[in-house]
Every structure is written in C-alpha cells, then in structure tokens.
Amino acid sequence: MTKFLxxxxxxxxxxxxxxxxxxxxxxxxxxxxxxxxxxxxxSAPATAPATLEILRLADASRGNLAGVRWTVDIDAFENKxxxxxxxxxxxxxxxFLAEFLSPPKVKGQxxxxxxxxxxxxxxxxxxxxxxSSRQKLVGNAxxxxxxxxxxxxxxxxxxxxxxxxxxxxxxxxxxxAKTKKSTYDRVKYWxxxxxxxxxxxxxYTVSGMMFKTARFEFGNKVQIENHERPFISAIKISDSVxxxxxxxxxxxxxxxxxxxxSTFDVNLLMTR
Length: 272
Known about the structure:
Blueprint: H1 2-8, H2 22-27, H3 49-60, E1 68-78, E2 81-92, E3 95-102, E4 110-114, E5 117-121, E6 129-131, E7 136-138, E8 141-142, H4 151-154, E9 155-165, E10 168-177, E11 186-192, E12 198-204, E13 210-217, E14 220-224, E15 227-231, E16 234-239, E17 246-256
Antiparallel strand pairs: 1-2, 1-17, 2-3, 3-4, 4-5, 5-6, 7-8, 9-10, 10-11, 11-12, 12-13, 13-16, 14-15, 16-17
C-alpha cells in the first residue's frame, strides 16, 4: 500500500472554498454548530499513520494523480436562477488547468492553479489575473472545487467516532485547515471504510457555523499500475441556509494522460 501511495500521490496542491459571508453565517440555525470538539474524539493523534493513509487514498480518488484529464459539468440552481458550466480539466498532482467550453459567454476562459496560486484569463485580457480559489465559480461551487483535494497534507485531522451514512460504514474526521490557503477553514469528513472514498462533507466557517454540505459519488474508475481505483463522478452541494440552492458537479471521461510542464506554466497561459 505504501509503495502504491508513493507512486500516485505527487506534490501537494490545495483547493479552497469561500467561507460563508457573515450575513449567511448569522442566519444559520444553532443546530448547524461546528463538529464535535476534539475533546470528544478518540485519542489518536491527527498525524496517526492510519489517518493519513485513509485521507491520501481518498484524495487519490478526487483527482490527485500523476496526470489525468476529465470533463466537469456544473448545474446550479441559486435564488431561482439556473446556470450551467462545462469545462475541460487537466490535472497533475494538485495543479490543474481548466478551460471553459460552454456556455458561449464563458467559452475560452481559463483557470490555472499551481502551487497554491491561481490565475484567471479570458479572451481579450492582456495578462493572467491572480484570483483566490475561494472565489465563487457558480452556484455553491468555488473555483477550488474544480479538481483535486489534498486533505491529507493541508488539514490537521482528528478522528471522531465512526458513523453510518446511507447504510455506508464510515471513518469520520474533524479537520482544521493548517493555512488560510486551504479551501475550507474546517471540515467534518466521512470516508467509506470499504472503498476509502469520500461519502459526505460538512463545511464550516472559522466561527463554527456550517454553511454547506456535499455528497460524493464515485461511478468512474481509473487504472493505476494494475490497481483499479474508484474516481469521482459527482459532487452534490447544498446550501445550509437556503435549502433550495443546489449545485451538481459531474465529472466524466477521466483518462490518465502525460502532461508536460508547459501545461502548468503561467507564462504560457496567454499563448494557448
């Protein structure tokens, strides 16, 4: 298992989602308070080998591979408005390049994420514009949701009591971001014991208020050195305040691909 992980898990890349605005956080009911305090968790340290191994495997199924390409389609309902986005994504480790394919008003726009830095460009712009991966993309999705996660390296994870979600027995972790560049400040994370893939996540503000939840599906598969791994196929995100605001992200046609360094060179972003 250790050799397998070393082969498929390259250098770290982080993805970030915006914390809920203060007005939304204030609207969240007290029942959305943060995950159980660490004092109620098992005594195993956050860096326990078993915890890191579980999170690394779960990260691998979210896109952290030596080179992979896939299509992301986003279907968002927010405040009675319906929006669609489609993009081609190339990723290596935690770096990614996404190009928008549709609708026409966003076609040709690109987002590049390299070593925790993100840039945005579109036709007519003279040079890439630095942006935050916490910035809203569409609906409940942020730019940081496009590709892989690096929860194993970017969060201090405290094991909580095991739980069952939709009949699936899960490891549960209370995860606190190590830096401000992490997508979420705090995450309660459920990982399937059987498949070692994400099942559910709850996202919290620094103050401990939950502002969104996500469910994950892994209907895709990729072959890595004769090991077949489940691969993300859908993320369904719901707003904890405005329950009718729903965002669905579909990940299709994943294929392993050798990607050159030039793919992730910001100096070449405008020439593509």
